[in-house]
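Person: I have long wanted to understand how a fold can be written as tokens. Underneath my words sits a plain record pairing an amino acid chain with its backbone structure tokens. Those tokens are not coordinates but codes from a learned vocabulary of shapes. I should like you to check that the lines agree and flag anything odd. The protein I mean follows directly.
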Amino acid sequence: MPSLLVVETSPRGDYSISRALTRRFVDRWQAAHPDGYVVERDLMQTELPFVNAPWLQAYFTPPERHSDEMREVLRLSDELAAELLAADHIVIATPVYNYNVPAALKSWVDHVVRKGLTLGNDGKGLVLGKKATVLLASGGVYTAGSPIRDRDIATQYLRLILSVLGITDVSVIAAGGAKAVDLGEVGREAFLDELQAEIEVQAA
């Protein structure tokens, strides 16, 4: 039974372009995989702490020596890593803030990149045989041919992290120029329709 993990990051709710892309992607994926199931991880609904001293102490302590407090500190991190490992296809839907991903998504990355779970002790990724799709909404346009192509840090960062984890089958659907929707220069559905063909290919 195929599974899809959806990681949502935008705080904009119904106004979010990345969330709208997710809805279209999930609809298409479910149509292509009627026997599959979807796990949604909304980082705006998850109290996801930043990595701190107690977390690091628990992380660097061998599991057999964990106290109850240490196990509790790592509980959510363990859950997030388990979701990632269980999925066949991972969708990360995110806006771009100051050329990179939001802090909530960076925190999710810090919680799922775990030696002994998603990384081997040799540093090689253990999240193998999976596909990932990044749905990226940005005010600027950073795709090939753009004069600010070198500022496409968010895409480079997510590709790097996924590769480190062992996921090399990564596709990016870049919804650049999304600010035109907010400015009323283009209709929301018309903007999304331009990306529908890419969505259908990656969700199939």
Observations:
- The beta strands are 3-8, 37-42, 89-95, 131-138, 169-176.
- The chain has nine helices and five strands.
- The chain has a mean pLDDT of 96.
